[in-house]
């Protein structure tokens, strides 16, 4: 149930991105109208199976009116209509609308990623997982660096794992290969850093602690600022491996390389807590 709710929340995020300032004659009225329609959509999608068809139609018509009267809100409204069509099981109509919308707003990469996600989601809701995966993988390659593109490989792996252990393992390997490829880019590019973070998650979800620890070490070596976020993770992985000395080794190596880093005093405390010898820690 929890994962279902999380995914439902993700769908809502796709449908309703953060709205920028609306440049219309009456931006407050336009925004208020959209949020009212959005709240109605939220209620519909929370229980679509019991929603009367008339409510779907009324909600769609309101978005269509918003598109005509408030063009700056057209993109958000088009995605909302597509979401409604998907939950009405009008899958082909939803995909046609999404394809037309992507072409119309081809210059907007973020919109294109969200529209492509909904196209994949439409296949998934239709029960066509193979087509859904193809659509999701197209998103991953066409929108490298996008937040959804990073999330999709793990989502596919989790879904495959529910169906078949071997298929799930293979999908995790594909996810790992995807993240590893992106991590090889320029280190100053956020994509490379984010790829390593997702690579860690891919190993962690499979409880491959040794590999997960190796990635965390790679992260903090390449991006020393990340040690503040990963210190406890590294310590925890050492405990999961029942080899705290491996976590200690990562901490000691970091201290030697970055003796002036503000986290060093905390790392020394962690080393002592893990049972490391104080004399092995640079002062």
Give your account of this protein's structure.
This protein has 283 residues and is mainly alpha-helical. It contains 14 helices and no strands. It has helices spanning 2-15, 27-46, 53-69, 74-87, 91-104, 109-126, 129-142, 147-163, 165-183, 190-205, 209-222, 227-240, 244-257, 264-274. The longest helix has 20 residues, at 27-46.
Global Rg: 23 Å
Could you give the distance between the termini?
A: 50 Å
Sheet having the most strands = none
Overall pLDDT metric? 90
Helix-strand pattern, N to C? HHHHHHHHHHHHHH
Gross geometry: elongated
Helix content: over 70%
Number of helices: 14
The residue ranges in which pLDDT falls below 50 over 5 or more consecutive positions are 1-6, 18-24, 278-283
Number of strands: 0
Structural class: mainly alpha
In percent, how much strand structure appears in the residues? under 5%
List its salient traits.
283 residues; mainly alpha; 0% strand; disordered N terminus; disordered C terminus
